[in-house]
DNA sequence: AAGGACACCAACCGCTGGATA
DNA sequence: TTATCCAGCGGTTGGTGTCCT
Protein backbone atom coordinates (compact mmCIF):
# COMPACT_ATOMS: atom_id res chain seq x y z
CA UNK A 1 0.00 0.00 0.00
CA UNK A 2 1.15 3.50 -0.72
CA UNK A 3 1.42 6.14 1.92
CA UNK A 4 -2.01 7.47 2.67
CA UNK A 5 -2.46 11.22 2.61
CA UNK A 6 -4.25 12.93 5.46
CA UNK A 7 -8.04 12.86 5.14
CA UNK A 8 -8.18 16.62 5.49
CA UNK A 9 -6.04 19.70 5.99
CA UNK A 10 -5.37 19.12 9.66
CA UNK A 11 -3.69 22.46 10.13
CA UNK A 12 -6.79 24.41 9.24
CA UNK A 13 -9.69 22.42 10.61
CA UNK A 14 -11.23 23.05 13.99
CA UNK A 15 -10.61 20.53 16.75
CA UNK A 16 -11.97 20.08 20.23
CA UNK A 17 -15.46 20.23 21.68
CA UNK A 18 -18.40 20.69 19.38
CA UNK A 19 -20.74 23.64 19.71
CA UNK A 20 -24.52 23.45 19.55
CA UNK A 21 -24.34 25.29 16.25
CA UNK A 22 -22.02 22.70 14.75
CA UNK A 23 -24.23 19.90 16.03
CA UNK A 24 -27.22 21.56 14.40
CA UNK A 25 -25.40 21.70 11.08
CA UNK A 26 -24.61 18.00 11.20
CA UNK A 27 -28.17 17.15 12.18
CA UNK A 28 -29.57 19.32 9.41
CA UNK A 29 -27.23 17.82 6.88
CA UNK A 30 -28.04 14.22 7.85
CA UNK A 31 -31.75 15.00 7.91
CA UNK A 32 -31.70 16.24 4.35
CA UNK A 33 -28.97 14.10 2.78
CA UNK A 34 -28.75 11.03 4.95
CA UNK A 35 -25.50 9.35 5.84
CA UNK A 36 -23.08 9.11 2.98
CA UNK A 37 -19.56 10.20 2.19
CA UNK A 38 -18.35 11.83 5.39
CA UNK A 39 -15.38 13.47 3.72
CA UNK A 40 -17.79 15.68 1.83
CA UNK A 41 -19.92 16.51 4.85
CA UNK A 42 -17.85 19.40 6.27
CA UNK A 43 -17.91 21.19 2.93
CA UNK A 44 -21.60 20.57 2.25
CA UNK A 45 -22.71 21.27 5.80
CA UNK A 46 -20.60 24.39 6.14
CA UNK A 47 -18.36 23.05 8.89
CA UNK A 48 -14.67 23.69 9.41
CA UNK A 49 -14.12 20.16 10.68
CA UNK A 50 -12.46 17.00 9.47
CA UNK A 51 -14.91 14.55 7.92
CA UNK A 52 -13.77 11.89 10.28
CA UNK A 53 -14.50 14.18 13.20
CA UNK A 54 -18.02 14.74 11.83
CA UNK A 55 -18.61 11.02 11.51
CA UNK A 56 -17.48 10.41 15.09
CA UNK A 57 -19.65 13.21 16.40
CA UNK A 58 -22.63 11.69 14.66
CA UNK A 59 -21.99 8.06 15.58
CA UNK A 60 -20.98 8.69 19.18
CA UNK A 61 -23.31 11.50 20.17
CA UNK A 62 -25.87 12.82 17.69
CA UNK A 63 -27.43 9.62 16.41
CA UNK A 64 -31.10 9.71 17.43
CA UNK A 65 -31.14 6.11 18.59
CA UNK A 66 -28.47 6.63 21.24
CA UNK A 67 -29.15 6.42 24.94
CA UNK A 68 -27.55 9.15 27.00
CA UNK A 69 -28.46 7.87 30.43
CA UNK A 70 -26.18 5.83 32.64
CA UNK A 71 -25.58 2.13 32.20
CA UNK A 72 -27.97 -0.22 33.95
CA UNK A 73 -26.71 -3.13 36.09
CA UNK A 74 -27.94 -5.54 33.44
CA UNK A 75 -25.96 -3.71 30.76
CA UNK A 76 -22.92 -3.75 33.00
CA UNK A 77 -23.21 -7.46 33.54
CA UNK A 78 -23.52 -8.03 29.82
CA UNK A 79 -20.42 -5.97 29.16
CA UNK A 80 -18.48 -7.92 31.74
CA UNK A 81 -19.56 -11.25 30.35
CA UNK A 82 -18.83 -10.28 26.78
CA UNK A 83 -15.49 -8.84 27.78
CA UNK A 84 -14.58 -12.07 29.49
CA UNK A 85 -15.61 -13.93 26.38
CA UNK A 86 -14.19 -11.85 23.54
CA UNK A 87 -11.92 -9.28 25.14
CA UNK A 88 -11.88 -5.61 24.21
CA UNK A 89 -13.88 -5.93 21.02
CA UNK A 90 -15.93 -2.88 21.92
CA UNK A 91 -17.83 -2.60 18.69
CA UNK A 92 -19.02 -6.19 18.91
CA UNK A 93 -20.02 -5.72 22.51
CA UNK A 94 -21.79 -2.45 21.74
CA UNK A 95 -23.86 -4.13 19.05
CA UNK A 96 -25.42 -6.25 21.77
CA UNK A 97 -26.42 -3.16 23.74
CA UNK A 98 -29.02 -1.12 21.85
CA UNK A 99 -28.40 2.60 22.07
CA UNK A 100 -24.79 2.24 23.19
CA UNK A 101 -21.71 2.98 21.12
CA UNK A 102 -18.37 1.27 21.24
CA UNK A 103 -16.97 4.48 22.72
CA UNK A 104 -19.60 4.41 25.48
CA UNK A 105 -18.86 0.82 26.34
CA UNK A 106 -15.13 1.34 26.24
CA UNK A 107 -15.28 4.43 28.45
CA UNK A 108 -17.58 2.74 30.91
CA UNK A 109 -15.27 -0.23 31.08
CA UNK A 110 -12.17 1.88 31.60
CA UNK A 111 -13.69 4.18 34.19
CA UNK A 112 -16.02 1.92 36.15
CA UNK A 113 -16.06 -1.76 35.46
CA UNK A 114 -12.33 -2.35 35.37
CA UNK A 115 -11.93 -0.74 38.76
CA UNK A 116 -14.94 -2.57 40.11
CA UNK A 117 -13.36 -5.90 39.21
CA UNK A 118 -10.01 -4.90 40.66
CA UNK A 119 -11.63 -3.91 43.92
CA UNK A 120 -13.25 -7.34 44.07
CA UNK A 121 -9.81 -8.90 43.65
CA UNK A 122 -10.42 -9.99 40.08
CA UNK A 123 -8.01 -9.35 37.26
CA UNK A 124 -9.94 -7.33 34.65
CA UNK A 125 -7.98 -8.85 31.79
CA UNK A 126 -8.36 -12.52 32.58
CA UNK A 127 -11.43 -12.19 34.84
CA UNK A 128 -9.76 -14.48 37.32
CA UNK A 129 -9.01 -13.80 40.99
CA UNK A 130 -5.57 -12.27 41.52
CA UNK A 131 -4.72 -15.05 43.93
CA UNK A 132 -5.26 -17.65 41.27
CA UNK A 133 -3.15 -15.72 38.78
CA UNK A 134 -0.29 -15.63 41.24
CA UNK A 135 -0.46 -19.34 41.89
CA UNK A 136 -0.72 -20.00 38.16
CA UNK A 137 2.29 -17.82 37.57
CA UNK A 138 4.25 -20.14 39.80
CA UNK A 139 3.29 -22.99 37.52
CA UNK A 140 4.59 -21.53 34.30
CA UNK A 141 7.77 -23.59 34.53
CA UNK A 142 5.72 -26.70 34.98
CA UNK A 143 3.91 -26.31 31.67
CA UNK A 144 6.74 -25.05 29.48
CA UNK A 145 8.40 -27.97 27.72
CA UNK A 146 11.95 -28.58 28.92
CA UNK A 147 13.49 -27.80 25.54
CA UNK A 148 11.83 -24.39 25.51
CA UNK A 149 13.18 -23.31 28.89
CA UNK A 150 16.37 -21.34 29.32
CA UNK A 151 19.40 -23.65 29.32
CA UNK A 152 20.09 -23.16 32.99
CA UNK A 153 16.60 -24.31 33.91
CA UNK A 154 16.26 -27.39 31.78
CA UNK A 155 17.19 -29.82 34.48
CA UNK A 156 14.76 -28.30 36.89
CA UNK A 157 11.38 -29.79 37.38
CA UNK A 158 8.56 -27.53 38.54
CA UNK A 159 10.09 -24.76 40.51
CA UNK A 160 9.81 -24.09 44.16
CA UNK A 161 7.18 -21.52 43.27
CA UNK A 162 4.85 -24.13 41.86
CA UNK A 163 1.36 -24.30 43.22
CA UNK A 164 0.92 -27.01 45.79
CA UNK A 165 -2.02 -28.43 43.89
CA UNK A 166 -0.44 -30.31 41.01
CA UNK A 167 -3.80 -30.73 39.30
CA UNK A 168 -3.49 -27.17 38.11
CA UNK A 169 -0.49 -27.97 36.00
CA UNK A 170 -2.18 -30.51 33.77
CA UNK A 171 -5.47 -28.82 33.07
CA UNK A 172 -7.47 -29.53 29.97
CA UNK A 173 -8.60 -26.25 28.41
CA UNK A 174 -11.55 -28.01 26.80
CA UNK A 175 -13.04 -29.20 30.02
CA UNK A 176 -16.68 -28.74 30.81
CA UNK A 177 -17.61 -25.48 32.50
CA UNK A 178 -18.45 -25.87 36.11
CA UNK A 179 -20.24 -22.63 36.79
CA UNK A 180 -22.69 -21.09 34.36
CA UNK A 181 -22.17 -17.43 33.75
CA UNK A 182 -25.05 -15.56 35.23
CA UNK A 183 -25.71 -13.72 32.01
CA UNK A 184 -24.86 -15.18 28.66
CA UNK A 185 -27.40 -14.38 25.99
CA UNK A 186 -28.26 -16.68 23.16
CA UNK A 187 -26.80 -14.19 20.73
CA UNK A 188 -23.41 -15.09 22.10
CA UNK A 189 -22.91 -17.75 19.49
CA UNK A 190 -23.35 -15.18 16.76
CA UNK A 191 -21.09 -12.65 18.38
CA UNK A 192 -18.45 -15.24 19.01
CA UNK A 193 -18.61 -16.34 15.41
CA UNK A 194 -18.14 -12.74 14.37
CA UNK A 195 -15.20 -12.51 16.70
CA UNK A 196 -13.62 -15.63 15.31
CA UNK A 197 -14.01 -14.44 11.74
CA UNK A 198 -12.03 -11.32 12.50
CA UNK A 199 -8.29 -11.55 12.30
CA UNK A 200 -7.59 -8.26 13.96
CA UNK A 201 -7.27 -9.52 17.50
CA UNK A 202 -5.70 -12.54 19.08
CA UNK A 203 -8.26 -12.40 21.83
CA UNK A 204 -10.73 -14.74 20.20
CA UNK A 205 -8.39 -17.66 20.13
CA UNK A 206 -7.74 -17.30 23.80
CA UNK A 207 -11.24 -16.49 24.77
CA UNK A 208 -12.85 -19.60 23.47
CA UNK A 209 -10.71 -21.57 25.85
CA UNK A 210 -10.94 -19.16 28.69
CA UNK A 211 -14.65 -18.54 28.61
CA UNK A 212 -16.15 -21.68 30.05
CA UNK A 213 -13.30 -22.69 32.23
CA UNK A 214 -13.40 -20.49 35.26
CA UNK A 215 -15.55 -21.35 38.21
CA UNK A 216 -14.39 -18.19 39.93
CA UNK A 217 -15.73 -15.46 37.78
CA UNK A 218 -16.62 -11.94 38.76
CA UNK A 219 -20.36 -12.54 38.80
CA UNK A 220 -19.96 -15.13 41.51
CA UNK A 221 -19.35 -12.16 43.76
CA UNK A 222 -22.48 -10.33 42.65
CA UNK A 223 -25.17 -12.93 42.92
CA UNK A 224 -27.14 -10.93 45.41
CA UNK A 225 -27.00 -7.74 43.39
CA UNK A 226 -27.83 -9.47 40.20
CA UNK A 227 -30.80 -11.35 41.52
CA UNK A 228 -32.14 -8.07 42.75
CA UNK A 229 -31.81 -6.44 39.40
CA UNK A 230 -33.17 -9.15 37.15
CA UNK A 231 -36.68 -9.37 38.35
CA UNK A 232 -38.71 -9.21 35.20
CA UNK A 233 -39.13 -11.81 32.52
CA UNK A 234 -37.37 -9.88 29.80
CA UNK A 235 -34.26 -9.79 31.91
CA UNK A 236 -34.46 -13.40 32.86
CA UNK A 237 -35.17 -14.54 29.35
CA UNK A 238 -31.59 -13.96 28.35
CA UNK A 239 -30.20 -16.00 31.18
CA UNK A 240 -29.14 -19.56 30.61
CA UNK A 241 -31.22 -21.88 32.68
CA UNK A 242 -29.60 -23.32 35.75
CA UNK A 243 -27.17 -26.03 34.81
CA UNK A 244 -27.41 -25.28 31.10
CA UNK A 245 -24.37 -26.49 29.23
CA UNK A 246 -22.45 -23.38 28.36
CA UNK A 247 -20.39 -25.20 25.79
CA UNK A 248 -23.16 -24.00 23.51
CA UNK A 249 -21.75 -20.53 23.93
CA UNK A 250 -18.10 -21.27 23.59
CA UNK A 251 -18.35 -22.18 19.90
CA UNK A 252 -15.59 -21.12 17.58
CA UNK A 253 -13.99 -24.23 16.33
CA UNK A 254 -13.36 -25.93 19.61
CA UNK A 255 -13.80 -29.65 19.53
CA UNK A 256 -15.37 -30.44 22.86
CA UNK A 257 -15.10 -34.14 22.26
CA UNK A 258 -11.55 -33.60 23.48
CA UNK A 259 -12.88 -33.61 27.01
CA UNK A 260 -11.82 -37.17 27.43
CA UNK A 261 -9.33 -36.43 30.19
CA UNK A 262 -10.87 -36.76 33.57
CA UNK A 263 -9.18 -33.77 35.03
CA UNK A 264 -9.72 -31.75 38.11
CA UNK A 265 -12.53 -29.26 37.96
CA UNK A 266 -10.50 -26.27 38.91
CA UNK A 267 -9.98 -23.63 36.29
CA UNK A 268 -7.31 -23.23 33.67
CA UNK A 269 -5.01 -20.30 34.03
CA UNK A 270 -4.83 -17.67 31.39
CA UNK A 271 -1.25 -18.52 30.48
CA UNK A 272 -1.95 -22.22 30.44
CA UNK A 273 -4.89 -21.63 28.18
CA UNK A 274 -2.73 -19.81 25.67
CA UNK A 275 0.00 -22.41 25.73
CA UNK A 276 -2.41 -25.31 25.54
CA UNK A 277 -4.28 -23.65 22.74
CA UNK A 278 -1.10 -23.11 20.77
CA UNK A 279 -0.08 -26.70 21.27
CA UNK A 280 -3.48 -27.83 20.06
CA UNK A 281 -3.20 -25.57 17.03
CA UNK A 282 0.16 -27.09 16.21
CA UNK A 283 -1.44 -30.51 16.22
CA UNK A 284 -4.57 -29.50 14.34
CA UNK A 285 -3.04 -27.13 11.80
CA UNK A 286 0.66 -27.95 11.42
CA UNK A 287 0.76 -26.19 8.05
CA UNK A 288 0.06 -22.87 9.78
CA UNK A 289 3.45 -23.01 11.41
CA UNK A 290 5.41 -24.03 8.34
CA UNK A 291 6.39 -20.51 7.47
CA UNK A 292 7.61 -19.73 10.95
CA UNK A 293 10.06 -22.58 11.16
CA UNK A 294 12.46 -20.70 8.89
CA UNK A 295 12.93 -17.88 11.36
C1' DA B 1 -11.85 29.55 49.65
C1' DA B 2 -8.04 27.44 47.21
C1' DG B 3 -5.95 24.06 44.83
C1' DG B 4 -4.59 19.37 44.14
C1' DA B 5 -6.28 14.69 43.03
C1' DC B 6 -9.35 12.04 40.83
C1' DA B 7 -13.22 10.58 37.71
C1' DC B 8 -15.55 10.93 33.63
C1' DC B 9 -16.13 11.07 28.78
C1' DA B 10 -15.85 13.48 24.26
C1' DA B 11 -12.69 13.65 20.87
C1' DC B 12 -8.55 12.53 18.60
C1' DC B 13 -4.94 9.45 16.60
C1' DG B 14 -3.18 5.90 13.97
C1' DC B 15 -3.93 1.55 12.11
C1' DT B 16 -6.56 -1.96 9.43
C1' DG B 17 -9.39 -4.09 5.96
C1' DG B 18 -12.72 -3.66 2.25
C1' DA B 19 -13.98 -1.42 -1.95
C1' DT B 20 -12.80 0.49 -6.17
C1' DA B 21 -10.46 2.62 -10.10
C1' DT C 1 -1.93 -6.20 -9.29
C1' DT C 2 -1.37 -1.90 -7.26
C1' DA C 3 -2.58 2.49 -5.39
C1' DT C 4 -5.92 5.06 -3.26
C1' DC C 5 -9.95 6.17 -0.64
C1' DC C 6 -13.00 5.45 3.05
C1' DA C 7 -15.27 3.62 7.22
C1' DG C 8 -14.54 1.29 11.29
C1' DC C 9 -11.95 0.08 15.19
C1' DG C 10 -9.32 0.24 19.68
C1' DG C 11 -6.10 2.91 22.36
C1' DT C 12 -5.06 7.25 24.20
C1' DT C 13 -5.44 12.11 25.40
C1' DG C 14 -7.11 16.29 27.24
C1' DG C 15 -10.79 19.23 29.05
C1' DT C 16 -14.10 19.68 32.59
C1' DG C 17 -16.50 18.74 36.73
C1' DT C 18 -16.42 16.93 41.43
C1' DC C 19 -14.44 15.63 45.64
C1' DC C 20 -11.23 16.04 49.31
C1' DT C 21 -7.92 18.22 52.26
UniProtKB/TrEMBL annotation:
<dbReference type="GO" id="GO:0003677">
    <property type="term" value="F:DNA binding"/>
</dbReference>
<keyword id="KW-0805">Transcription regulation</keyword>
<keyword id="KW-0677">Repeat</keyword>
<keyword id="KW-0539">Nucleus</keyword>
<dbReference type="InterPro" id="IPR017930">
    <property type="entry name" value="Myb_dom"/>
</dbReference>
<keyword id="KW-0371">Homeobox</keyword>
<dbReference type="InterPro" id="IPR009057">
    <property type="entry name" value="Homeodomain-like_sf"/>
</dbReference>
<feature type="domain" description="Myb-like">
    <location>
        <begin position="10"/>
        <end position="62"/>
    </location>
</feature>
<feature type="domain" description="Myb-like">
    <location>
        <begin position="63"/>
        <end position="113"/>
    </location>
</feature>
<keyword id="KW-0217">Developmental protein</keyword>
<keyword id="KW-0238">DNA-binding</keyword>
<feature type="domain" description="HTH myb-type">
    <location>
        <begin position="67"/>
        <end position="117"/>
    </location>
</feature>
<dbReference type="Pfam" id="PF00249">
    <property type="entry name" value="Myb_DNA-binding"/>
</dbReference>
<dbReference type="GO" id="GO:0048658">
    <property type="term" value="P:anther wall tapetum development"/>
</dbReference>
<dbReference type="GO" id="GO:0005634">
    <property type="term" value="C:nucleus"/>
</dbReference>
<dbReference type="InterPro" id="IPR001005">
    <property type="entry name" value="SANT/Myb"/>
</dbReference>
<protein>
    <submittedName>
        <fullName>Duplicated homeodomain-like superfamily protein</fullName>
    </submittedName>
</protein>
<dbReference type="InterPro" id="IPR015495">
    <property type="entry name" value="Myb_TF_plants"/>
</dbReference>
<dbReference type="GO" id="GO:0009555">
    <property type="term" value="P:pollen development"/>
</dbReference>
<feature type="domain" description="HTH myb-type">
    <location>
        <begin position="10"/>
        <end position="66"/>
    </location>
</feature>
<keyword id="KW-0804">Transcription</keyword>
